[in-house]
User: Fold this.
Amino acid sequence: MTTVLVTGGAGFIGSNYVRHLLETEPGAKVVVIDKLTYAGNLANLRDLPSGQAGRLSFHKVDVADAPAVAEVFSRFQPRSVVHFAAESHVDRSIHEPQVFLKTNVVGTQVLLDACRESWKVSDGWQEGTVFLQVSTDEVYGTLGPEGRFTEDTPLAPRSPYSASKAAADMLVMAYHNTYGLPVAVTRCSNNYGPYQFPEKLIPLMIRNALNHEPLPVYGDGRQVRDWLHVEDHCRALELVRRRARPGSVYNIGGGTEMENIELVKLLVAKLREVVADTAVDEGLIRHVTDRPGHDRRYAIDASRIGDELGWRPQVAFADGLERTIRWYIEHTDWLESIISGEYMDFYEKNYRDLAPGRAG
Ligand code: NAD
Ligand code: DAU
Assistant:
């Protein structure tokens, strides 16, 4: 059995990936480490089929804590590391950048050093080892109305979050160039799907609309994001983990570009139809103060991963969105239970008017 270490496996994409891995790789043992910040929840890993749950172990570990990470490596001897753990929300990075540097940059360096220590053999690296850095299209900065990011687009991050991810990506490549560590980097566009924390656009809008609360659209709402269902992202990550050339970078994106305001209106219409509630209405939309430094447009050219690894998105956006809406409607208990005091404190301090249950 191969052992895969998944960092941040109690978060949105990490928990979806853990499910995907357990289901598609019956020969894999999965070790999750996660600090369980406000964004990480063990509830995201519950209800696994019993045959799969036995292959999963969870450890509450901060990736920036080198002795704790070293202990995990010596105990479990993972051959792959899939590194999701991060502070991931742009708005939070604007108010509290320090923790983004600590987790996203120092945490990545700690993991890379643990890999070096654990995987080194006299003439290179243990067979089949790989460190997969799960990164973001935001490291490329912002686009005008035309063009798409390729893997050769220069890094030009513009928020503390994306700067910390770009720094981590560069460290990963530096460990490959300097020590030859077998690594791969993926840069994905905006994900949506089940288990996403309701600070992010789609689950936040679903939650607010279900509660007949205002839907805060930043600025003019004409910023463009390129949406991908989380299952498609997980499939791409598995292909990269198993087949990527050491030192390679892959962009991942759904090719579904949409303005935020258009997406919010679509969500409202779909939700209104599904719950048959006329109070779920576009009248709930409020244009609020824009995010400082708000990136205008992201769009991904994912041809490399298509050509080299045969990946294509399989979930059509209309279908993925409807499934996602239905999932949140069926999981309102989950939605409310993960809204912690820590999360509310941040909104009280920085976005009083937009806090859940308070926007008006
Ligand atoms: P998330 O915020 O939902 O989950 C992050 C997880 O990391 C949480 O479980 C949290 O507890 C954990 N974590 C945070 N700090 C930690 C630390 N110091 N030590 C250990 N665990 C820690 O994030 P997500 O949306 O699932 O994103 C996962 C990764 O994918 C991130 O690296 C993000 O940059 C990247 N990414 C996200 C998207 C997206 O659309 N959400 C797109 C592209 C890339
Ligand atoms: O592109 C990949 C990135 O996508 C990931 O690296 C990040 O981890 C992830 O959070 C996401 O970043 P965004 O900033 O694009 O996602 P968010 O859901 O916060 O916002 C999506 C868009 O919607 C963005 O243009 C800001 C806008 N927005 C967001 C919120 C939360 C609003 O208009 N209103 C809101 O209340």
Q: What stands out?
A: Residues 7-8, 10-14, 34-37, 39-40, 62-64, 84-88, 103, 107, 134, 136, 165, 188, 190-191, 197 surround nicotinamide-adenine-dinucleotide (ligand 1) (CB under 6 Å).
